[in-house]
Protein 1
Amino acid sequence: MQLTDAQRLDWLRLIRTEGVGPRTFRRLVNRFGGAAAALDALPDLAGRQGRRITPPTRSEAEAEIAALARLDGRLIATGEADYPRLLAQVDAAPPLLALRGAGILNRPAVALVGSRNASTAGLAFTERLARGLGEAGLTVVSGLARGIDARAHRASLPTGTIAVMAGGQDRIYPASHAALVEAILREGGAVLAEMPMGWEPRGRDFPRRNRIISGLSYGTVVVEAARRSGSLITARYALEQNREVFAVPGSPLDPRAEGTNDLIRQGATLVSEVAHVVEVLGPIIERGPDAEAAPARGRPDLAEQPDFWDEIELDATGADCDPIPLWPDRETAGRPVCEDEPPQPADDRARIVALLGPSPVGTDELARSAGVGARTVQSVLLELELDGRIERHGSGTVSLVSR
């Protein structure tokens, strides 16, 4: 299937209509035989429930497409050749995706996600894992966040990486990762966004992004995650999509490992080297994206994780759920505050302490992760040692003493 320009405009107007998410979009298109007919019928259907729904105008949709084109981006639709076949199998797959970059979306991929306040040990292992997975022929998918995500993207630049954004293509979050986005594009990777141009990401947009990350991938590897980490939501979506879930074990003394250790206890595949991922995914990839999914084996139970989809129920009686405005200019109360990113340490000492954990790490790696010189690291470590907060090990490694 290849949409005409007119059809693409209709698809964009329909999916940008308030309260129309991926599932409602498909129901409308299937019911009326196309997006144009659904747009004509939508005001009457919504009016029966006492709602007033007005789709974006053609000029608004054309403006979004033009703005995306100025960034060398374009919209791809489910069913088109460039749309990721694996993602298209997901129940709530976006009907349209804004794409910038090369056509690597249908290469075998694995998601690599984890803590934003990552430890130095977690960052170092992420780098090793991402490089190894890339060398094994897998594209690394992640969410462009600080910590594990950013390290996964950087380590897999030479072999191919896909970044999935929570906001619009022109709203990189965090803004400090603009250079990373340019590097991904320059090295032949891809950047995807579901939300409109101009959309500032909100807290609830990150779980939506996460189901795209897992949907693009044959499996999801969680490196570090606290018990209520957003990375566990990615794992939950992977389970719902019948994809593999992997977890890297960590010290039971480190809160950043509580979520991953729980995943392993509940049945996720333990990962301590690249081969542990490749051995599991190899046979699945050989069957191809269109093969019938294998029956779920021992899988973690993440049913308590909340659902993040509110869509209008056009056939429902009584009150329906609250709509989610998807057109930035139609926001009535200004930009919501994004709650996904934790505050960043303000000084060198705080950054170094945040990167330490119960697992021993080398001072060189600590300096690289903190973005400071070796002399600064040694000075901070001396202060921490005098305060009884670190323990020194062989080969110049140190660890944080649990209190």
Protein 2
Amino acid sequence: MIALSVRTERFTLPSTLRASWGELREREVLVVRLDFPDGLWGEGEAAPLEPYDGVSMASVRAALDAYAAVLRSLEPTADVLEACRAERDLPQALAAVDLALWDHASRRTGTPLARLIDPRAVGAVPVNATIGAEDRSGAAAAAAAAARAGFRCVKVKVGIGDDAGRLAAVRAAVGPEVGIRVDANGAWGTVEVALAALRSLEPVGLELCEEPVHGVEGLREVQAGTRVPIAMDETHAPGAGGVRAVCLKVTRGGITGVLADARTARAAGADVYLASTFDGPRGIAAAVHAAAALRVTRSCGLATLAPAGALTPRDGVIEVPGTVGLA
């Protein structure tokens, strides 16, 4: 029998994040522990963010309770993840189970997780700093601090207020060598508005723009109308093609889901990178290991946790932990 238990963890972000979907200061995640008949265990994390992904904490908790009942009567040779999926196909809940399975496999084999995924995994993952939709002076101060800390890329939330003025202040603060990406979270709404916004921001020099609008066709139209690389995120159709990059997230089905999405996106001709939904330490660790195994070269949005211990960025990278497990 595999026993599933759940506990809640809360943490505070280093500063309040403002985005087009709302503000975030505190974060709550569900930590899932699986205890196995071999005497070992594994832990994962469910990190729904309802204002962003529309998934409530209550729905995830209900799914995890249902999974616990399934696992109590599961045959020893059964596929744990598929048994849970058959009960309730909720990616944010399945992600927690998937991470716990990988955590257990790493502990059982004594192999660091990145090398368990792929023995060719790299030893460090480049990461970006994230700047909310602050006013000009606040955004510039945050960007300057990120550049001093060694970040080679900053991501700025847009879709609220004076985007052009904010981005100009950020560019002035970081200089010409630091990459700037923007994230609209679909706030520009239509292709026409998105293209006009990108034209106003192009002089800043953008590395890419995440999710200017929602929907595959809209993203394709925006990409066709701009030189700025467009990245798909919330739309989550990695094999659709028509954009230059796909942002992958562990909250959408765990490490197994990320690896499948990466294969699909790359087959469609898109670059890939990972980001968090302001996950807790297990979610960030899982994403770092997955990015290392995928040998991602674009900066990943994983510098979102503080204090981060072994996952603290230094000079714009997170070193991949060489220990077993996720924590």
Protein 3
Amino acid sequence: MPLNHHDQVNLLKDILTNHQTDCCGSVSECEQLERLVKSLMVNNNLDSNVKPILQEIYNYSQNGKYSADLDEHILSNQTNLSSWVDDIGQFS
């Protein structure tokens, strides 16, 4: 069953929040973030102001996926994670 826009945004926020609170994550979570962002980027109902944020999240997930130390990557992005969760919450 495909996820609707609202479900995708909630899942995106959940993964980012987990990364923020746990300061750790997995490559599969980074891959899931990429898939969610790609799906949301092609959604015409999405507020255009959120697209730059989604691009930042996509870059974060790409860098995390290929990072030698994913936990350190997540730790170094704590401020971004907090900001993204707050920003996405305003547009969901």
Protein 4
Amino acid sequence: MEEPSSGIAKPRVAITYCTQCRWLLRAGWMAQELLSTFGDSLGEVALVPGRGGAFAIVVDGETVWERVRDGGFPDVKALKQRVRDRIDPGRDLGHVDGASAAGAASDGQDRA
């Protein structure tokens, strides 16, 4: 997908989910989280029906999460970080990236 004014292609995210397992709601929620966080930085977020326990998230042809390979479903923090690392590595995700380990250790607060 292209941005009309610049002709630069924006990233496409595809979330493949198992229809037999009824994972549509989970896939839709993850799509919503990505769109809320990355907004206009994404060209498309597609939900792709699959079967046989499939659950994978692919950014521009590169798998960033696969349920079997990665041991289950991603939490939203991990998902956003992996997508960010693929489309805009320098981007700060604010509270999703959390405080530095030293800051968290010094006050005993878990900010992740």
